[in-house]
Design brief:
The protein is of the alpha+beta class. The chain contains five helices and five strands, in the order H-H-E-E-E-H-E-E-H-H. It folds into two domains: 4-50, no CATH class; 83-152, no CATH class. It binds zinc ion.
Length: 154
């Protein structure tokens, strides 16, 4: 009769014998290699999207997934550029947004800057409160998806 602890040790040994350490190393390497090349290709295509865009040299660039338009005359331009979703909202409400105001993407797609997808918050506290409410409504599973958009703030 074995104690629970000994039984556990025996079980783990038995599991370990299924594959030699070398075989397991090879398997994990091939898995890792595959994952790396696929994600690398994806990352490359994301990086290239901005430069392939015909508008790239005409005042449009994409930074961290956000479309930026050249608006050197804008009071809150950064390096001459303003985020497109803020410009769309400004055009909609016919005034310049203050830096405290946050424009949220309703469907979570930060490349979709149609006015129907945008929602204005007076500040980031109100904006984050909205995200918290979304999380509570959708449940735990979507937390990761939501926090991805949070990193960018909007
Ligand atoms: Zn948001």
């Amino acid at each position: 009769m074995h104690s629970a602890e000994t039984r556990e040790k025996i079980r783990q040994k038995a599991l370990g014998r299924k594959h030699t350490p070398e075989a397991r190393q090879k398997m994990s390497e091939s898995r890792r290699g595959k994952a790396k090349s696929e994600s690398f290709k994806r990352a490359l295509s994301v990086r290239m999207r901005g430069t392939r865009n015909p508008c790239y040299k005409q005042g449009k660039k994409i930074i961290h997934g956000y479309v930026h338009l050249l608006r050197q005359e804008h009071p809150y331009s950064v390096g001459g550029y303003v985020k497109e979703h803020r410009l769309v909202m400004e055009d909609h409400i016919q005034r310049v947004l203050s830096p405290e105001e946050v424009v949220h993407h309703i469907n979570g797609d930060i490349s979709d800057n149609s006015i129907d997808n945008l929602m204005l918050f007076p500040n980031n506290v109100a904006h984050l409160r909205h995200h918290a409410q979304l999380r509570a409504g959708r449940g735990y599973k979507n937390r990761t998806a939501n926090s991805r958009y949070h990193k960018q703030g909007e």
